[in-house]
Amino acid sequence: MSLKIDQDHGRFRQIVRGRIRQNLRKYISQGELVGRKGKDLVSIPIPHIDIPRFRYGDKQRGGVGQGDGNPGDPIHGGDEKQPGQGQAGSDAGEHILEVDVTLDELAAILGEELELPDIQDKGKNKISNAHDRYSGIRRVGPESLRHFKRTYREALKRMIASGTFQHDKPVVVPVPDDKRYRSWKTVTEPVANAVIIYMMDVSGSMGDEQKEIVRIESFWIDAWLTKQYKGLESRFIIHDAVAREVDRDTFFHTRESGGTMISSAYKLCSQIIDADYPPDEWNIYPFHFSDGDNWSMDDTLACVDVLKNKVLPRANMFAYGQVESPYGSGQFIKDLREHFGRDERVVTSEIRDKDGIVGSIKDFLGKGK
Amino acid sequence: MSKFALNTALPRYLRAEQERVEAVAREYGLDFFPVIFEILTYDQMNEIAAYGGFPSRYPHWRYGMEYEQLSKSYEYGLSKIYEMVINNNPSYAYLLEGNSLTDQKLVMAHVYAHVDFFKNNFCFRSTDLDQKGNIIDPVRKTSPYDPDRRWIDKMANHGARVARHIERHGINKVEDFIDRCLSLENLIDPWQPFSGRGTTKKGDEEEDEKPIEVPRLRAKEYMESFINPEEYIEAKKKQLARDKPERKVPERPERDVLGFLLDHAPLERWERDVLEVIRDEALYFVPQRQTKIMNEGWAAYWHSKILTEKILDASEIIDYADNNAGVMATAPGRLNPYKVGVELFRYIEDRWNKGRFGREWEECNDLDAKRSWDMRLGLGRQKIFQVRALYNDVTFIDEFLTPDFVLEQKLYTFGFSGRNDRFEIESRQFRDVKEKLLFSLTNFGDPYIRVIDANHQNRGELLLEHQHGGVDLRADYARETLVSLVRCWKRPVAVATRLDNKPVLLRYDGKEHSMTPYKL
């Protein structure tokens, strides 16, 4: 059924998208969007399009509330939406509207903004995996799955309805008909068929600011590739003079000092691919971020060797992002360009500061590989 | 009957319930317009709610924004709209399809109380229309009271008018102007309909064009040209014309800025029409904003009374209680008008039942005596009916909020603590609570803005004044609003206000904003 509101809603969406478009650079660089909530839902605080009026300034913030607590106690959830009854909007809201955008929508907007082409899938069979999820209630089931609260409630309802409930002696006895059981549904989920292997240089010369850039950038890469593939895995490698695999959290929060042997990371990356990701079933995306300050030319040559012979034949592409740092020489990107200048599978990008993130995402994903 | 092409008539079993609820409501003394119930799916409900209850309003993106918010929050299970009721004669009420029967009965009882409130509360008389659909002077009340409130039709007419302008001038141009007008939407005088002057003032204008009379000395006819020589009379006339005090526009400061713009701004015809639509609709929603707490409290009071005393049977009571508790729930940092309203009505009923009012009660200092005070007057019901007719939120809170009530209901004030970067409870003192509550209700928490001078500095500039009551205007918003005013006035506009304790004049001349110190 087509609703009259669709027209107005479409217009609003256009305006909002326009807004996101204009401010997208700002949002990405400020990392305002990185609040990932739940499984795949991101809540971006897009300012409600507030028509400016004569109104009071900030000093008026606050009001009257109801409930427990002493003066000085914080108010929790003051911004939460109130469940329950709502009435037609006779007064304009004072609140900020949080437009929830699913990660999918977000990626679509990103794709639109950066004019990213859709990725050409390698065309593997999609393998699915089944598992059970408890999501419903039924009248029959094993006793071990009995839902006590629901059963009790049914019994109470029945007793009240039939008049056998005694207020002075509130005993509730369920009969078999009252019993309720949890029930499950079998959900099939496609197995991940793309993997991103993030590698990051954590040598002394990579500061917090550089790591923040990597974090934001990897969020957007995740978002885009998740839209392109039904399932997506991420692996994380950090390296200084030696490389090791870590979890996401460690990846973004490790600070180490020491030298830089980039080849160590590439070797580990190659081993991971060997072990877990047969290239005819997986789309493989290695991303490497560094400040470009490798230990020696020898090591750089070792890197080129590993890339050429082990990584590139199996990966969709190899992306190298060089974050500018006050300490790094920035030599590595030049070396890579020298050796792989014509190779389409190698994408290099220099990221000067947070504002450079958008450009580098476009560099990385713009080829549609 | 209903113009919108929705098949929304009530199924028979709900019609039967409606008749039952209606009969009970009448028995209790509620006095309402006829109510037409319609049943909607959730997306129809969200759509109509986004349009503020009117399915055929003029098109505008903000309804789309509202819709997105409503439908998203419904889809994620954050909230749902159980009912909506439109102040119209007959009143329309919308039920949500798929609600349980208990919920539907609750909603019906709730709706009848709302409609009783629409009909009887004095604020809503400002939405009475005349035959041509103009807002009329509501001071005279007819008996029996059956006013014309065909706002559904009126809003649909507005929709058609705006649609016509869009067709002629293009959506972007018209929508842009609507945005400008909406930015001025709150610059109306909520009491203007009660001033007895009609919606826009006409008629004073002929008065001032009387020819100037020069007083003549008495003289015989043949002496006239000597005693009152023509040259002297002419000179005097000129002098009088020069000295005549410049007629000030407006004569008195004018709160109805929108009305003032309609009367005096050099608007094109379609612009004037759009502005008139915005102003009429803003005035329509005024009474609902003035009585939010009372209206919801009144409806909650009655749905609970009607349902628990007459309608529900034992098997439904748990569902009812569950739902009712959801409606009455209070969230931190937010005042639930349903809860405060219903508690205050019950509190008043209890006080008047027990005779806890009047001089004797006020002067009694014996806590124990007060606690057991019961004169068995039984005046409670009568009193709350009177209150629902004669008060609005401001006077309701001002008169009936007592220290006992604040304590009992655990009311507090909260504010933003810059030090801790969070909202905190500030006080539980009666004075503080009442002050803050009244502040937020007075003029709907908006600043008072008035037109002072339409010919400021003799340059045709518009001067407004913000009556500073202790809180500054939000400066960036004020600047944007000035842009909207210039769009209508087409000459520079300034507003006199105070920022950081200094009187300043914020001015926009169509190109640049300026801020200068100012002395009124």
Automatic annotation (TrEMBL), chain A:
It comes from the Bacteria. Pfam families: DUF444 (PF04285). Residues 53-91 are annotated as: Disordered. It comes from Polyangium mundeleinium. This is DUF444 family protein.
UniProtKB/TrEMBL annotation, chain B:
Residues 13-444 form the SpoVR protein-like N-terminal domain. Residues 447-495 form the SpoVR-like C-terminal domain. It comes from the Bacteria. This is SpoVR family protein. It comes from Polyangium mundeleinium.
